[in-house]
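Input sequence (138 aa), recorded before submission:
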Amino acid sequence: MLKKMSILLLIAILSISIIAGCAGSGGDDNGNDRSDEQTDIDESTEIASPIDIKLSEFKITPSNITIQKGETINFKVENDGSTFHTYTIEGLDEELRLQSGQSDNVEIKFDKPGTYKVLCTVPNHEDRGMVGEIKVED
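Predicted structure, token format:
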């Protein structure tokens, strides 16, 4: 048993080494060497926890969300309703289209402060209460 685990561990380490070697070729698609270029990573940017969104007849829960400018949000949207719904964020060209029982997610970085309307674009659903907002504070 110990010998099997040692062999599996060795295979895993070798596989990771091979993958890492292939990924780090140092060139771009045009064959130019880019191994000495530095990639800047903004370590001050935090990825926020996912926000769970539930769609049903005829509401979006939570309907109002407040976040800080610069945050990246992973919206996990689930259609708990009995009919088709959308989760649309106006001004960002983001729309999830979900049949009953489906779920999907979208990750968005909010760089501009302001208020973004969220709604279900199915006819009459907004009028019946499937509307809310995302407020991005400075």
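Checked by second reader. The domain at 51-137 is CATH 2.60.40.420 (Immunoglobulin-like).
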